[in-house]
Amino acid sequence: MKKNASVRFAGGDGTRRWSVVICLSALLAIASCAAQAQGVVRSTQNPEQLALLHWEQADTTVQITVGNGAFGLAFDGDSMWISNASSGTVSRLSVSDGRTLATLSVGGIPHGLVYDGANVWVLSNQSQSVIKVRARDLAILGTFAVGSGPANAAFDGANIWVVNSISNSVTELRASDGSLVTTFPVGPSPVSIAFDGTYMWVTNFAANTVSKLSGFNGTTLATFSVGKGPNGVAFDGTNIWVANQNDNSVTKLQASTGALVGTFPAGSRPASVDYDGQNIWVTDFGGNAVTKLTTDGVNQGTVATGSGPIAVAFDGASMWVANFNNGGPSTVSKF
């Protein structure tokens, strides 16, 4: 399974962009004891199919204090990582009890996070770069240039794909050394990306579409219409789910063909989406909650979160939600 989702909230004159990344990388977390110090786990498994062990949800929600402006989430198999956009830091939390294990200063405005099996990649929206952090000891292994406004990223088993929301492009980097593979054009204001094991799917916020890219060479194979203001995107093993911020819905597309399966109500200003192996979870940024849907789109109810839930991730047992709180002191909700 994968999860990496991202959000852009247009405001004012439209020239300022918050590209909010919801790292669905919980689903990209390939826990491998054979990972090299700076290496990358290569696997024949579909990264979208990882950590799908589903447990019964608890009745209580725990609120855990992190930095200011919690934005992105990534699960590394042992810990949950949170980017704090307003603090310029990344927090690493224990998934068992929520305690803070470490806080790393990365500067800039950290947005999306993605885990490659050995390292966590932090997207620095302000500096137009990504920072490679070794997960086991938080050593910074390098900083690599990408396009303007890096918002969200996905891992395909060998390379990191970064969505550049201002450049209207996707940059592909080798995970082994951060070297540039190439950069591909996509639609206007792209914000989120998901890997289905073969193809990359990118949401184009300003065009109300998603682009389907070849995972081999980045060629745009097709573009599909979805709802208004598509932000977060996730793969459930068969279908692509897109959170449509501006019409309070999620769109379900057949991954093999792009055919529309259905569109379903999903709270207020849905920002991100994730799959836990059984259900679809959608953050309701405007309602301070997450909506739980079956894979048929049936609403199973909501769970209250903190203020401005903007990212959601699954750790194999619990759901985690990053609460942006308008850039102020933030929490993550665990349930």
What does this structure look like?
The strands form 8 sheets. A 4-stranded antiparallel sheet has the order 3-30-29-28, with no helix packed on it. Strands 4-5-6-7 form a 4-stranded antiparallel sheet, with no helix packed on it. A 4-stranded antiparallel sheet has the order 8-9-10-11, with no helix packed on it. The protein has a single domain (5-334), classed as 7 Propeller (Methylamine Dehydrogenase, Chain H), CATH 2.130.10. The radius of gyration is 17 Å and the shape is globular. The protein contains no helices and 30 strands. The two termini are 19 Å apart. The chain is 0% helix and 54% strand. The chain has 335 residues and is mainly beta.
Please, what is the average pLDDT? 87
CATH topology description: Methylamine Dehydrogenase, Chain H
Strand content: over 45%
What value does the Rg take, in angstroms? 17 Å
Give the ordered list of helices and strands: EEEEEEEEEEEEEEEEEEEEEEEEEEEEEE
**How many structurally independent domains?**
1
The first-level CATH class is given as: Mainly Beta
With strands numbered from the N-terminus, the spatial order across the biggest sheet is 3-30-29-28
For the termini, the CA-CA separation is: 19 Å
Question: How many DSSP H or I helices?
Answer: 0
According to DSSP, the number of beta strands is 30
In this structure, how is the largest beta sheet organized? 4 strands, antiparallel
Q: What is the overall silhouette?
A: globular
Question: CATH superfamily, please?
Answer: YVTN repeat-like/Quinoprotein amine dehydrogenase
Instruction: Tell me which CATH architecture applies here.
Output: 7 Propeller
Poorly predicted spans: 1-58
Percent helix, as a range, is under 10%
